[in-house]
Give the backbone structure.
Amino acid sequence: MGRITTHVLDTANGKPGQGISVQLHRIEQGQRTLLHSTSTNVDGRCDHPLLDADALVAGIYELDFDVGQYFARTGNDSPDPAFLGVVTLRFGVAYPEQHYHVPLLVTPWSYSTYRGS
């Protein structure tokens, strides 16, 4: 069964990104549609898949992570405004029967992602 999952790792502090707001959108004909909104748990993961089963179709998706609020809340000495606020990852789903795990590795100054398992 196909699904989209994520997790956030705070690589600046060497810990999971707990309490980060995450939103999943589908992009169709240039329009963004909100599909799911949640927050990361103590392990930096979402408690349930963001999308799964028949709801997951081939197409373009975006994940929004509010890392600016997270780093402000966790006491990092970030400028105002922060360098990173909401990080948006746009990715394609070509095979909706597969698992798309899209993690975010983040610091107050940088981020990276990859297709995980």
Q: What stands out?
A: The CA atoms of residues 2 and 54 lie 8 Å apart. The chain has a mean pLDDT of 96. The longest strand covers residues 31-39. The radius of gyration is 14 Å.
